[in-house]
TrEMBL record:
Pathway: Lipid metabolism; fatty acid beta-oxidation. CDD domains: crotonase-like. In the central section; belongs to the 3-hydroxyacyl-CoA dehydrogenase family. In the N-terminal section; belongs to the enoyl-CoA hydratase/isomerase family. It comes from Salmonella enterica subsp. arizonae. This is enoyl-CoA hydratase.
Amino acid sequence: MTTSAFTLNVRLDNVAVVSIDVPGEKVNTLKAEFAAQARAILKQIRENKVLQGVVFISAKADNFIAGADINMIGRCQSAQEAETLARQGQQLMAEIQALPVPVIAAIHGACLGGGLEMALACHRRICTDDVKTVLGLPEVQLGLLPGSGGTQRLPRLVGVSTALDMILTGKQLRARQALKTGLVDDVVPQTILLEAAVELAKKDRLAQRTLPVRERILAGALGRALLFRLVRKKTAQKTQGNYPATERIIDVIETGLAQGSGSGYDAEACGFRRAGDDASIAGAA
C-alpha cells in the first residue's frame, strides 16, 4: 500500500492539520498520484461537521512544496495529456478553496510553482521570516505557465501588474516582500508557525484585502487595456518571440480578467496544452 503524502490530524480545538510529507523524498513536490490522496483528505474534512478550520503545513524541514514534479510533466505523451494534467490540478485547488471552513497555508521554506498554487487556493497564507522561505511561480523559466489556477488567483490577490511581474519573470519573493504585496497575511518565527496558523483558522473568513489604488485603476477596463498593451510591447522586445510561454501567460491572465475566472481557467489549461507541443516539456524532463 502506497503511503500518502498527506496526513490528517484533528486537534482537540477542532482544527484539522494536514501535514504534507512526500515519502522517501527530501523535498515535497506535487505528483499526479497525489490528487486522489488529497481528495480523500478533503472528503474527511467536508464530512467532519465540527471542524473550525484547516491548516496545511509541511512536515519537511525546510520546504512547503517546491513545485510540481518535472518528470510528471515530461511523461505527458501528448498535448491533450498536458491539458488533462492542468485540469486535474485546477479541480483539486478548487476543492480546497470550496471547503466550508477557513483554510490556512502555513508556509516555511520553498513555496513554488504548484506549491504556491495550492497556497493560493487556501483562504489565507502565513509564512515564516526564515531566509529559506521564498514564494513564486517559476514555470516560465521552464517554458511553461502555471497550470493549477495560479494565473487566475494571483492577479485577484495581489493585483494584475504585480502578478504579471511575478509570473512573467518567475520572480521569487522573500517573506517580507510577500507580506508587502499581500501574497501572505502574516509573517512569524518558525517556532510559532503552526499555532499562529491555527489561531487564524479559528477566525471567521476575513474580508478580502483592498488592493492599492494603482492596482485598482489597472483592474478597470481602460487601465487594463493600457497595461496589457505595454506589457506585450516590453515582453516582445525582451524575448524577440523566442519564449512563447510569456505570450501565453499574458493572454491567459487577460482572458481571466476580461471574461471571468471560468474562461481564465479554460484558457490556462489550453495554454498548458499548447506547452505540450513545445520541445520545452521534453527538455524539462
